[in-house]
Write a structure and sequence with these properties.
Distance between the termini: 20 Å
Structural class: alpha+beta
Largest sheet: 4 strands, antiparallel
Radius of gyration: 24 Å
Mean pLDDT: 80
Strand order of the largest sheet: 2-3-1-4
Number of domains: 2
Strand content: 5-15%
Order of helices and strands: HHHHHHHHEHEEHE
Helix content: 55-70%
Low-confidence stretches: 281-289
């Protein structure tokens, strides 16, 4: 089982590295975008001195990897080293065999951002990284777990994008680079946290049982009744109906509850991930607890 798990991790690391390589080499390099992370620094050196991007990335990673080793732990460190090698091979060996995109620069930036974001998300989901600023990102995440990976990545990458644009005096390139950084952040967060996102609603009402029934009837979702008491004046006993649903169902739910109890107090919250019946399932059809 352990071997199967390791092979699965390596498979996703390889797919993620391939997507990153295509985004960088086949879309970003020819369009001369100032890219993010150590790949961005490697592209600057490639344009200035024709250094291989993948090999340069490995060299740049060595001091950062040593510094971050204690914070990230041996397991993450070794997985990342493996992923650094895989991604470097993809960039220097595999990607050059694929055609270079020579079309519109805006479309090139979009493709680079989406492909790169998908690739990084797949790698982060294996608790691994491609090194460089990824090491720094994961180290910050370990110290500040409430911060999202996409936001940390965006903040760290702004400086490298600005440096690349200023070196080559390309203001448009800075704008495109920022756009790619933003796409990286959005795609990473959407893939890691948003695929199974939805809404959670808390409905404070004196007609809890009726609200539960109308929710089940209109959108087919189950709900939970919590006991509560009003904090104003008479401490009236109330029901707090909690229900999770997808984004499309929330509007229907809201209107149905308003029709059932006009005095109901409705709180709608964003829910990054929802597990259970009708939501995210794991292989074999079993519910993920």
């Amino acid at each position: 089982m352990k071997l199967k798990s390791q092979l699965s991790v390596m498979f996703y690391e390889t797919i993620g590295s391939f997507l990153i390589a295509v985004g960088i080499y086949n879309f970003a390099v020819l369009s001369e975008f100032p890219m993010t992370g150590f790949s961005g620094i490697a592209i600057i050196l490639y344009r200035l001195f024709d250094f291989p991007i993948g090999l340069t990335t490995i060299v740049l990673n060595i001091p950062v990897a040593i510094l971050c080793y204690r914070v990230l732990g041996r397991g993450f460190f070794l997985r990342s080293l493996r992923c650094i090698v895989i991604s470097s091979i993809m960039i220097d060996v595999v990607a050059p065999y694929l055609p270079m995109y020579q079309g519109d620069r805006l479309l090139s930036a979009i493709c680079a951002g989406v492909l790169g974001g998908l690739g990084y998300a797949l790698i982060f989901m294996q608790n691994s990284s491609t090194g460089g600023t990824d090491f720094i990102i994961m180290a910050v995440k370990a110290k500040k777990p409430h911060l999202s990976l996409g936001k940390i990545s965006f903040i760290l990458d702004v400086g490298i994008v600005l440096a690349g644009g200023l070196i080559f005096e390309d203001v448009d390139g800075i704008i495109y680079g920022m756009m790619i950084s933003y796409l990286f952040a959005v795609v990473i967060d959407k893939v890691m946290y948003g695929i199974n996102s939805g809404k959670m609603t808390l409905i404070v009402t004196t007609r809890g049982r009726e609200v539960v029934e109308i929710i089940e009837k209109t959108i087919g979702r189950g709900s939970t009744i919590l006991k509560g008491y009003g904090g104003h004046k008479n401490n009236e006993e109330k029901s707090v109906v909690m229900c999770a649903c997808n984004n499309k169902q929330m509007y229907v739910l809201e209107k149905a509850v308003e029709a059932t109890d006009e005095a109901a107090f409705i709180i709608i919250l964003e829910s990054n991930e929802v597990y259970g019946e009708g939501f995210k399932m794991i292989a074999g059809g079993e519910k993920r607890e």
